[in-house]
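sanity check this:
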Amino acid sequence: MPFHDTPWPAGTPCWADVAVPDLAQATEFYGAVVGWTFVDTGEDFGHFRICQTAGRAAAGIGPVMAEGQPSVWTLYLATEDADATAKLAEEHGGTLLAGPMDIPDSGRMAVLADPTGCAFGLWEAKGRIGIEVYNEPGSVTWEDARLQDVAAGREFYTAVFGYTYEPVPGLPLEEYATFHAGGDPLGGIGGLMGAPEGTPGHWVVYFSVADVDAAVAAAREHGGQVTMPAEDTPFGRMSVLADPFGAPFAVHQPPPGG
């Protein structure tokens, strides 16, 4: 099982968390669908839950900060200096939404929106590196940025994180591209594509599961919704779901031998 114990290279997707109005219901749902166990970080941190796979941090679930706040998964990109990266993002058309702020004994974070309105986080690791297990059932395995203006998004992420882009065989670069740093695929690489018409820009986090169909059935049983039925693709079997609070995410099962 791939474990990671040192800070992720700058620009790497390194953490994902979701804010929900009911932590007990959320842990029941994600435990059934993704297979996580949970660690309560205590009252000082709002009883934020660390989602674990094989005893390693895989993601987080926290409480919403205000009534009516929408529940969404936030993807965090690694940085060696959250303040400097936030400033650079603003210089290239990004908008600072929160922070930068210290998370005691853990790291420094900020939340921004890119010029297309797609929100993402920054994580400067100190006590916690973020994701400690990846590309295994119960962990992050992929990320897609779905943007209203793909060209503007590519320009922004290149300027801030140095990304380069490669087309997927059979698809034009303008339709879908994987992103890379320094010419090498990121740990938990991802892609950029257009958002459906009328849908705000957003990141979709994919979690690996042993059985997509079982995960879909568990999601339905525990109050979730299926927004894209399970289907086979050249890259594996996948489905897009929403948790009981409306937060979208995807589940993925590698192809046989993949």
